[in-house]
Amino acid sequence: MCTPSPIQRVFWPIDFKPHSPGLIYGWVTPSGSSACVALTSPDVAGSKSTPVDRLKDVAAPSLLIESLRLLGACSTDAAPQSTPSSAPLHAHIRGRKSPQVFQGSGPVQVILYRRPNVPKHQYLSLVPIQLDLTSSARNPLPPPAEGEMEHIIRFINAAHAVNHPRGRGRIRTTIGQTKTNSSLSRIIHPLRALLSLPLLPQLRAPALKDVSATCAQLDVRLEQISFWSTQDVRREDGDVARGWALYVNFNNCLWLVANDAIIGYALGLFLRDNAVPLSRVVFSFVQTHAFTNIRSSILWLNAWPAGLKLHSELSAAITNSLISTMHMVEVYLLALAPHFPIILACLGYAGILGSTFILSLASDFLALLTAHLFGAYIALTYAFSWQLSILISLFRLFRGKRYNALRKRVEPAQYDSDTLLLGTVLFTLNVFLFPTVMTYYFFFALCRLAILAIHAGLETMHGVCPAVFASCRTHEEAA
Asked: Which residues have CB under 8 Å from 397's CB, separation 6+?
């Protein structure tokens, strides 16, 4: 028969100082080398009830309650307290000094710890928790390891609940995953799959949610609803850290969505009440910056700005095509102008779904109003890239080299005089035409950069507005 190993260290709560002698209850690790003190009981000899019988309604895991055992006796005076034979420890407390714990005649190392406050969502963990919605939903947190320190951490987390069986230490519910609301999931998953389909599969076009900010936000909201539908409020008897990770994750997401809806309702009400004056401001801003100023800048580039002599014929052709396209788009904008108040009112009604939907619709509306600038940018980008690749290839020709597409490397090559003559003519033409194309490309690249900056600002407001509002509400409640 093997004898249990002696207890080498005792974890004692730093705020736990009994004023009367009694018995010490707590836990012992499987190796038997460490013990964690949970509470003391003033039970007298002959009493049949134990603290374990009175802890059936404690929020701590039931396995820890069942493993709670008698560790020894505690005395507050110089006279030693009688220690049961089954409990080898004896603790002596005098005033505010640290307790002295003995096992038999030898002292035991005492480690003081502060019990986490369970009602304030405090607990200890050796690994960081995952609060990300997607990762925590798809990849549940792993179960705790079975090392010595992991057991001690689990005991310390349950110490506060054990001492408050009917007080503020009780936590009745936590959040755990369950397979419910399957009918709702059958509706959400096809909708998310539809948003993930490419627009033109033959051309490898991006998905609908990658093109439209509104579709992307709708996909995020469907993902949140799908996550909520798989949650159930129930009693959690597992690891404390895992339970609180799911609890914090669920309530953080719910709190942000609630703040998003509150801001969206207020912003939508403002848009509906001021739809007419705001429509005038939006129309004037778009017409001035997306049409009038762009047209003036194009004509300025065509007139050799700052002594930059562009190719007259090519510059005139680019200018005429761009201005003609902008004129056609501006005609449609003027036809759409009387309906701007209705569009802004629809944006206001979308605020019921949250402020992020208003910002997403505004981002898509901005992309629609500046579609002619995006088209011009794409066309000039292809022209610039095409001319640049031709210049690089002709430059390799003069150096007596060529690009091997199969081996993906530049190799020496032999060219005859006719090929060199044709390359010289083409290189000369492209050298004189390239500055004109590059000038217009840089101009529309700056325009595209400005539009992307506005989209980035709207995208930043998606996450900033609900988070800032939630922080302000939290500070107000704390005050």
From this structure: 415, 419, 420, 423, 427
Rounded to an integer, what distance in angstroms lies between the CA atom of residue 205 and that of residue 240? 46
Distance in angstroms (rounded) separating the CA atoms of residues 153 and 312: 79
Could you read off the pLDDT of 279-329 as tens digits, one per residue?
999 999 999 999 999 999 999 998 877 777 788 899 999 999 999 999 999
What's the average model confidence in pLDDT over 472-477? 43
Residue with tokens 């028969």: 1
Interacting residues of 36 by C-beta distance below 8 A, sequence separation 6+: 10, 11, 26, 27, 28, 152, 155, 156, 159
The C-alpha atoms of residue 211 and residue 198 are separated, in whole angstroms, by 10
Spatial distance between the Cα atoms of 192 and 196, rounded to a whole number of angstroms:
6
Helix/strand/coil for 311: coil
Q: b/e per residue, 407-439, with b = 16+ CB within 10 A?
A: eeeeeeeeeeeeeeeebeeebeebeebbebbbb
Q: 447 is written with which tokens?
A: 């325009």
